[in-house]
Amino acid sequence: MDPITHSLAGVTIAQLGFKKKAAFWVLLISSIAPDVDYITRFWGTDIFLRYHRGITHGIIALFTIPLIIALIFGFKKSFFYYYFLSFLGYSAHILMDLTNQYGTRILSPLDWNPYALDITFIIDPYISIGLLLCVIFCIFNRKKAVVISASTIILLLVYTGGRYYLHNKTKDFLKTRVEANTYKICPLPNDFTRWWFITKSGSEIKTGFADLFTQRICIQDIFTLTEKDPLIERSKDTRAVKNFLRFANFPYPEIKKDKDRTIVTWRELAYSFMPGDHFIAKVIFDENEKILKSEFKF
């Protein structure tokens, strides 16, 4: 989720009847605190891709950063009260991030593998708008703020639960139509019954759309993993590709000749339904196989 949605979530939780003066600020700050790793964007989008949702979204940070926030706001009194609120806001942030396919390294630094439920897109307008409406309604109806915020949270839980159910139904449906060893189901923006899929069987990878409503499978592309090319292997030594591979779950390299140049392009197939070049790393070699340029596109 984006920082604005996380902020709205913190404000929504703060409307649940917490009386102390600093409760609002503790929940707001803790709900966006995990995204302090946005600072890595100053070093490039590939660095951001590698480190975002890393250690600040991990289990150790979940217990230590709320402790720091609680010390700031409750050093003299109400420390445990503010620690509970901070832990609540921080946990809400991580749980919301876990719902989408971007991946969250929730066990870092003990385990750097990303985990994801794959049930919501990176930015879900239904969640963002729902939280925004909750905040607006609470401002204009203070007396019923607790009821409004509690109802909003329940509705959002039902919404994500429904998407979890549809995700699993789509995966079961896909297994009846496509034979494979590995199945990955990813949400599409503003869609409920149509999902993006990646399947892998041996050296063959298929991508496409699975539609529960029409009961159809549309295979978009079929990729074959071939023997390792020397230039593909060399491209892995560049910063852009190294960071890309730390992020990607389904990376696929393509190599093509363009006059006197050779271009190696790495794609994250989990996002290949998006038009244009997104989540790709590209390395350009000259005729003497010397690296001319390497770049990453977010």
Features:
298 residues, alpha+beta, 3 domains, four-stranded antiparallel sheet, 9 helices, 8 strands, 43% helix
List the helices and strands and how they pair.
Blueprint: H1 3-14, H2 23-32, H3 45-51, H4 59-74, H5 79-98, H6 125-140, H7 145-177, E1 182-187, E2 194-201, E3 204-211, E4 216-224, H8 230-235, H9 239-247, E5 251-258, E6 261-268, E7 280-285, E8 291-297
Antiparallel strand pairs: 1-2, 2-3, 3-4, 5-6, 6-7, 7-8
Helix pairs in contact: 1-2, 1-5, 1-6, 2-5, 3-9, 4-5, 6-7
Q: How would you describe what is shown here?
A:
The strands form two sheets. The protein has a four-stranded antiparallel β-sheet. It has a four-stranded antiparallel β-sheet with strand order 5-6-7-8. 43% of the residues lie in helices and 20% in strands. The chain folds into three domains: 3-162, no CATH class; 179-224; 230-297, no CATH class. With 298 residues, the chain is of the alpha+beta class. It has helices spanning 3-14, 23-32, 45-51, 59-74, 79-98, 125-140, 145-177, 230-235, 239-247, and strands at residues 182-187, 194-201, 204-211, 216-224, 251-258, 261-268, 280-285, 291-297.
Radius of gyration from CA coordinates: 22 Å
Helix/strand/pairing category: alpha+beta
Quick check: average pLDDT?
93
Identify the quaternary structure here. Answer: single chain
Domains (count): 3
Shape call = globular
Total number of strands: 8
Helical region count? Answer: 9
β-strand percent reads: 15-25%
* Share of helix, binned: 40-55%
Major pleated sheet: 4 strands, antiparallel
Unreliable stretches: none
Give the termini separation: 16 Å
Biggest sheet, spatial arrangement of strands: 1-2-3-4
| Series of secondary-structure elements, N-terminal to C-terminal | HHHHHHHEEEEHHEEEE
